[in-house]
Amino acid sequence: MSGQSGFTLIELMVVVVIIGILAAIGTANFARMRENAKLAGCVSNQRHIFQTGYNYAIWNAVPDGDMNVSVLAAAGFAPDNLCECPCSNNPDFNDYTITWLDGLPIDVTCDVEGAVHDWEPE
């Protein structure tokens, strides 16, 4: 060597490989975390819609069966963003169905195709 200090090509390649591995791990974790956040948002929406359904039932006679959540939004009981699943690519604000029995909500299901957001009311 002629007295110059610096990194060798091998040392630089090792650093680049390590950074690449860390980036690959981080990207995979980011994608999984993003899907988990969407799932949590959908389940949260279902819980809020279920509670909003009780309020709606106090003021309105509700027949047994299924009803789209857009009815709650149209009546002013639920904001539009609550009626939209985070996994939906179609902003139509009617991604949930409420099942009614004896004038009360018993279940809220997500209608987004390919999304599995199981939630059981307590």
Provide a short characterization of the protein structure:
This protein has 122 residues and is of the alpha+beta class. It has two helices and three strands; from the N terminus they run H-E-H-E-E.
Descriptive account of the structure:
- The structure is a single chain.
- This protein has 122 residues and is of the alpha+beta class.
- It has one domain.
- The chain has helices at residues 9-59, 70-74; strands at residues 65-68, 96-101, 104-110.
- The protein has a three-stranded antiparallel sheet.
- 19% of the residues are buried.
- The model has no long low-confidence stretch (mean pLDDT 87).
Keywords:
alpha+beta, 122 residues, 3 strands
List the helices and strands and how they pair.
Layout (H helix, E strand, L loop, with lengths): L8 H51 L5 E4 L1 H5 L21 E6 L2 E7 L12
Instruction: Return the average pLDDT rounded to an integer.
Output: 87
Residues in helices, as a percent range: 40-55%
**Could you list the spans in which at least 5 consecutive residues all have pLDDT below 50?**
none
Oligomer: single chain
Percent of residues in beta strands?
5-15%
C-alpha geometry: rod-shaped
Distance between the termini: 74 Å
Number of helices: 2
Cα-atom radius of gyration: 25 Å
